[in-house]
Amino acid sequence: MFKSFKSDIQAVFENDPAARGWFEVVFTYSGLHAIWNHRIAHKFYQKGWYTVARIISQASRFFTGIEIHPGAVIGERLFIDHGMGVVIGETCVIGDDVVLYQGVTLGGSGKEKGKRHPTIGNNVVIGSGAKVLGSFKVGDQSNIGANSVVLQEVPPNTTVVGIPGKVVKQGGKRTDRLNQELPDPIIEALQSMNREIDRLRTQVLDLRSRLEEQESEAKEAAKVPSGHSE
Length: 230
Fold this sequence. Notes:
The protein has helices spanning about 1-15, 20-30, 30-45, 50-65, 185-220, and strands at about 65-70, 75, 80, 85-90, 95, 100, 105, 120, 125, 130-135, 135-140, 145, 150, 160, 165-170. It is of the alpha/beta class. The protein folds into 2 domains: about 1-185, UDP N-Acetylglucosamine Acyltransferase, domain 1 (3 Solenoid), CATH 2.160.10.10; about 185-220. The protein is elongated, with a radius of gyration of 29 Å.
């Protein structure tokens, strides 16, 4: 457990450029406190001390604003940035080196029984306000855009944005895992439409110009040369 605590601190320095020193990180980062409280609560949960585990979980929620069910399984070096409003459900499984921003919900859709919360792969970044709901998997190296609502499985190396979440990039690798400037599929569709409209406008103007030239040539050809009859 203490080894995990050390790696959790290291994750803060790796993912937060504002982190200035270990003393500040240990005593002021609520996301780190929530993770540590969860690791303790999870030990009690595994031993069947469910009430004690829930008391620790609720106390942590009160002080940090982050709700992590003691039954959730969390891997190494999870980083919760700011964290207020983050909710992680009971059967959620989170891999290693995951980044969660404030307002993220890893919950259920309300239809499943048993495993009803998502499984998050390794090296996944989930943006502010995103909701991942259901018992599916988010693949390794994936990126969920801010305020997205994801309701189905996400393949590895995929970027998902929108409501409901749409795949806008697949098979590519992130160059900056903390970059939240993700493509907007609606804006991209509108830009594509504008390009098509511009192309059609150019064609119409070209056809109109040709038609006017043809009409002018036809009028010239239809003219009969004037002359004096003998």
